[in-house]
Structures
1.
Amino acid sequence: MTCWKNIKAIAFDLDGTLIDSVPDLAAATRATLSDLDLPGCTEEQVRSWVGNGAQVLMSRALTHALAREVLQDELDNAMPKFMHHYQDNLQQHSQLYPCVKDILAQLTSLGFPLAIVTNKPYRFTIPLLEAFGISHHFSHILGGDSLARMKPDPMPLTHLLSHWQLMPDELLMVGDSKNDILAAKAAGITSIGLTYGYNYGEDIGLSDPDAVCEQFSEIMALVSSSLKATEQENV
Ligand SMILES: O=C(O)COP(=O)(O)O
Ligand SMILES: [Mg+2]
């Protein structure tokens, strides 16, 4: 049984959890394909390709456009173009999901240490968080290239556990993708799966997170049981 009352710190996924970033990822993907004189793609297709970082996104887009397996040098040629297009247009059309700013502020004022654990390259993560005015909430920020392995590997989460000196049952991962839930399970930590993000078109419930939430604001009710437990201990 999940013990919500033990939660002391929270790790958040970024794309599809805090920020709906697909419109700008799709624009950068399409601009890259256009540079290469390849057929474009839809935003919906990009939504189903996001989840394993920029390189895998571009690899999936090229595989689709070429209708065959992509060669390493084709990917190597495309990546700087994608990075350039995305860097210049990180938040033209991306948006924070409802209540994100408010809930992060509440969690911060309640004293939870918060982290970002994203597969997005680190160099895009910081400016995006800053652009939306939420970077100050996170005391630790890990991009997909910050460590040797990214989600679904547990490495970023075990890194956080040792950084914060927490037991696995004291850390919560909140994310929209099976990569978030698989990483959480492999690290032995609690997870919440959000239904509104990107999960390759699959139901996040199939990954069996400890709880499924349809709205970001619903995480407050689960996390607040840990506060009640702390209050009772302090009486
Ligand atoms: O960039 C991606 O592919 C996914 O990023 P996320 O881990 O924040 O969802
Ligand atoms: Mg995500």
2.
Amino acid sequence: MSRQRRSGAIDTDSGTESGGARKKKASATQVDLSGFKALRSVMRIRPFRRLWVVTGVASLGDWLGLLATATFASAQVSGSAAKGLAFGSVIAVRLLPALVLGPVAGVMADRFDRRLTMVICDLLRFVLFASIPAVALFTEAPEITIGWAAIATFLIETVTLMWIPAKEAAVPNLIPKARLEIANQLTLITTYGITPVLAGLSIAALDRVTRAGGTTPPEWAEASNLALYFNALSRLAMALVVFVGIKEISGRAVGPRTEHQSMLRQFVEGWKYVGKTPLVRGLVFGILGAFAGGGIVIGTAQFFAKSLNAGDAAFYLLFGTLFVGLGVGIAVGPAVVRDLSRRRWFGMSIVLAGASVLVLAASIHLTMALLGALLVGAGAGMAFLSGVTLLGGEVGDDVRGRVFAFVQTAVRVVLMLAIALSSSLVGLGGSRQLTIADLGISISSTRLLLLAAGLFGIFTGISAFRQMDDKPGVPVLPDLWGSIRGRPLSAGEKFVPRGVFVVFEGGEGAGKSTQVTALADALRRDGHDVVVTREPGATDVGQRIRSLVLGRHSGAGLAPRAEALLYAADRADHVATVVRPALGRGAVVISDRYVDSSLAYQGAGRTLPVEEVSWLSSWATGGLKPDLVVLLDIDPRAGLERVAARGAGADRLESESVSFHDRVRYAFLDLADADPKRYLVVDATQPTGEIAALVHDRVGDILPDPPPPPPAEEVADALNTFAEADRP
Ligand SMILES: Nc1ncnc2c1ncn2[C@@H]1O[C@H](COP(=O)(O)OP(=O)(O)OP(=O)(O)O)[C@@H](O)[C@H]1O
Ligand SMILES: Cc1cn([C@H]2C[C@H](O)[C@@H](COP(=O)(O)O)O2)c(=O)[nH]c1=O
């Protein structure tokens, strides 16, 4: 059985109009999902708008706080080694709580009121952030100020671990599912694009202002202290806005509350859910793979810059480009892939990031490395956006907090391990120059690690894709390409054909009816269950359509598009009520004409865009393709003579010009050329018996031998509804 038929992908573009008209129509249907209007519509959701504003302010505060705590700690000691140690320790302390407390945080987010959890966490963070510079006001001892900065940072991070799952799990309840992606886009761009840059600029500006004129500011007015106070106040503001202004966060979308379960039980259930649900498993696997790869890129970045014979500036440039790519992926990705399945997009984005790491590994010049870094960032950004949106939109409310907590914990652990391991590993390996042609390529442990990271990224992307794919069997690249052009392929109708589908095609008078009958008789003699059918006109509706399109008087002025639609309508009814049921019961279905006739007559003959006629047919048939097409090829002059000899007069299409029929003939031949395995092209001027023997032989190759037993009686009864379609 042909694989194409089983896969049954359909191009779901919305019509046959061309150019601007189609674009207008497409954007009209997408207006609720993308673009500026979508942005406006999500901003109209009051609770989200408020949350977005305070999250932006708080995120600015957090980035300021991160920079400030680190610079604050190093400012308390002297000597570069001590400063470096102090700086590094504060950053490391921020990552530690995840190891112990991450999973518990998820249970809290699913167990307790999320709004109160957020408010209490923010009040605690307000106090803790403010306490860091405040303690320094009361003591001169650096061990106390640094010690407290480290303890406070640890506590802040612990509290943050509780806050994030509560917030992330609540957001999808505030926004309709269709708006979730744009809402996430907005939040991620604000949190990882705008506010870190603003924070860096603000802290530098603060430093300049407070030291203007060469004066040393009082300790409380140091830039890092002011930043920490701002951070504290932004958290207080967040607590107040969430408590007073976004009461909706307390609401639950679906599912029963789970307070009756013990915390331990909830914790175990959360892990089980992640392990057992293919979508979540795929997401988690993909996210972790991406972060592991990202960690290796970060861990090796400095050595990599050196391997390009570039200095520190190149390192920063690469790093900056990676973030630009991340932003581009998040901001532009959805507009590029349009209606591509988000599950597929997630896997593909990870594969893109992995493949781009390979570009990095193979870079022989800084420009190539920059391109690689840009694409790594773009892939990661798109994976991040689609991953978060999928988690928010497809994970049930009652377990969402635990899933987010699981992901955030695992991400931190994997990232830390990947950075630590890769940076120590690159230190161990040596580097030597290998000259290929005139290119000096540096093979070093850094590049080998990048190579491994890239391959690992591709592997995890593919695995995630496989686990989560919601369009199995639909070819990946045509689906991606179709989506970019606004014509995603939709999954074929769920249908497992048992029978075999043979179609006869050809011009007028080629001898199709004669050969259909001969083949059906021969196969019946061989013991096969055979259904003979045709287009147009195999069903009651089809009969009426046939008289509309072929009647010499009724359809005289029929517009080509109307003609194409009528044939498609006949086909849709024919496939749904005759062909699929017969194939489903295991019969051999022989049809006199099918999709190719539309491509040849309406496409080439009427000169409608063949691609669009093809889409129309794919949609009408739900992607059903024949196993074999027998093309009876004949010069139209000879074929039309045979028709005339029948003496019944020419129908509307037979009356078309010879050049029309020539175009039809060559279109049939082109189709056969493009897919030779699925076609048998026969010279239709041969004697009837010889043609019949050739066809019987070829069909024998694809038929089950011996013929399958007839279906059970009750199934046969059910299918008999369609048996009367065994005509023309
Ligand atoms: N191989 C052949 N050699 C000579 N004549 C043939 C051959 N096959 C069929 N014919 C004759 O040609 C005429 C058209 O045959 P047939 O109806 O089978 O063709 P068709 O392709 O189904 O036509 P249409 O396009 O009108 O449906 C008939 O009179 C038939 O007897
Ligand atoms: C299915 C199909 C058919 N046609 C044309 C081709 C013929 O001129 C008639 C069918 O007549 P026949 O005697 O049954 O062969 O319809 C078409 O133009 N487009 C189609 O999709």
